[in-house]
Amino acid sequence: MINLTIQSTIQNTIQSTIRNTLGSETEFSILDLFKSGQQGAWYDPSDLTTLYQDSNGTTPVTLDGQPVGLVTDKSGNVNNASQPVAAARPTYNDTPDRLTLDKVDDAIIIDIPAGGWTGSMVLGTVDGTASYGVTIPAGEYTLGGRYFPSNTINNLLLRDGAVSASDLAKVEADFVKDGATASYGDVTDFSNYWRDNNLTSFPLIDTSSGTNFYLAWYKNSLTSFPLIDTSSGTNFSNAWRDNSLTSFPLIDTSSGTNFYLAWYKNSLTSFPLIDTSSGTNFSNAWRDNSLTSFPLIDTSSGTNFREAWRGNTTLSTFPANMFDNCLAINFTNTFLNTGLSQSSIDGILVSINSNNTSNGVFGQSGGSAPSATGEAAITAMRSRGWTITVTGGF
Amino acid sequence: MRITVACPEQHLVKANQLAMALGLSVADEQTYSKLSYTDGNDNLYAVASFIASTGIIDSAQNTLNRPLWDEEEIIDMIQAEQAKNLVAFDTAASVDNISAMINDDGLAAIDLMNLTIVVETDLIDETLYN
């Protein structure tokens, strides 16, 4: 009898496990992500019962083209998103169901509860669908406005706490099933796309058609970055500015011409040998990081290196020959407040001098003064009209 | 139809009274709030873009009536009327009027009004150069 009970218990446990496992694979519900009381929100414009024209929730949305003043939260947390200003309300459109944003002032606002949310955001839009890591502080959080990835919200999920990659993929699949576009592969202009969006991690999405990445990831909290396809990218101005990147992948920047402020104000301690052969503007590109050394990148098309490595106080090792075949004359404050070794500053000066250019400007402070080798290069450059400031005052 | 409206800084208060008079609640006093655009002559503008019903168009073309929701008479109807008289359709933005542009694309309308977005102060660093 006891044996039968044990056997039955074991059988039930096994069957329950199998049932639960199969169930979770075949019948995934987004609501499962909130079933234990997890904080977050889920906005689903494909469910018209969640949309109201006014922010008080008295007039339901029933037709394509109507304004949306309130989107109720389907997660069970009642973290509804609203827009009290009539002129700033998104528009509901059908086929597929979505909120359309005018990219001028349309937005919905969530009141993030005390403690904020650190977790994931899954956003489905007409341009693509992806999952991001986010840290959103308590208070108002705006979805929309001038800077937002896409002009639609087809579906959006915010979930506090860790969510598995497989569950995020299932949410994405659900959003796509409801009409969101799966891939960002057709987007060419990513300027301002993910700007200022509290992102802590970024997914490996298809950006292969992207040409313009101006301010694309500006002002987030990214510490790392995936190896996305940037082979079509020409403008990387301000792209990763003001994040917390400590490393960077070997992305394809072979078409990149503008790297102005691209990695300004991060925490990079190293940098890969990216293809900069088309790059002309490197002004402030790596300024204010924590680099200790730098690879021998291609500077042959470079015209502007103003303040490019300024503020990397630990940058001691810099390749000799870096500026061979580079006709740039704008090196204004390029190495201000760096920690260059004597051999590094010597190599830089000798390399620039080798091009026989005239009337340029060069600036270094911090680190070591040049040796006689570097001083000889300085003397030669000054004879051709260069204005040169270096550590030690030579 | 979509209407995009550019309001110069000096007419913000009046324009927001008009927004409330044509709007749905006191929250519409925040319709023109961010001076995010410039005409290139140091003049700043707040811009709103919205789908306008024919009812709103009709209201804007006749003498304004206090909306039913404004039982506490929050709206300054005199200022709202003054703002209405400043509205000029299909013109470039100007400090002399409140410009309105009918265009399905709000950003295109802003371009047609010869406005550009102001470079945000947090993007400006006097030590940064191109």
Draw up the topology in text.
The complex is a heterodimer of chains A (394) and B (130).
Chain A: H1 2-26, E1 40-43, E2 51-52, E3 70-71, E4 81-82, E5 91-93, E6 98-100, E7 107-112, E8 117-124, E9 129-136, E10 139-144, E11 152-153, E12 155-160, H2 165-177, E13 199-201, E14 330-335, H3 342-353, E15 361-364, H4 372-382, E16 387-389
Parallel strand pairs in A: 14-15, 15-16
Antiparallel strand pairs in A: 1-12, 2-3, 3-4, 4-7, 5-6, 6-11, 7-10, 8-9, 8-12, 9-13
Helix pairs in contact in A: 3-4
Chain B: E1 2-8, H1 12-22, E2 37-38, E3 44-51, H2 54-61, H3 77-86, E4 87-89, E5 98-102, H4 106-112, E6 116-117
Parallel strand pairs in B: 4-5
Antiparallel strand pairs in B: 1-3, 1-5, 2-3, 2-6
Helix pairs in contact in B: 1-3
Could you explain the architecture of this structure?
The complex is a heterodimer of chains A (394) and B (130). Chain A is of the alpha+beta class and 394 residues long. Helices cover 15% and strands 17% of the residues of chain A. In chain A, strands 1-12-8-9-13 form a five-stranded antiparallel sheet. A five-stranded antiparallel sheet of chain A has the order 2-3-4-7-10, with no helix packed on it. A three-stranded antiparallel sheet of chain A has the order 5-6-11, with no helix packed on it. In chain A, β8 (117-124) and β9 (129-136) form a beta hairpin. In chain A, 51% of the residues are buried. In chain B, α1 packs across α3 (77-86). In chain B, a hairpin with a 5-residue loop joins β2 (37-38) and β3. Chain B has a six-stranded mixed sheet. By secondary structure, chain B is an alpha+beta fold. Chain B has four helices and six strands. In chain B, 28% of the residues lie in helices and 21% in strands. Chain B has helices spanning 12-22, 54-61, 77-86, 106-112; strands spanning 2-8, 37-38, 44-51, 87-89, 98-102, 116-117. Chain A binds chain B through residues 54-55, 65, 67, 84-89, 91, 102-106, 146, 219, 238, 260-261, 264, 281, 283-284, 304, 306-307, 332, and chain B through 2, 4, 19, 23-25, 27-28, 30-31, 36, 47-51, 106-107, 110, 117, 122-123, 127-130.
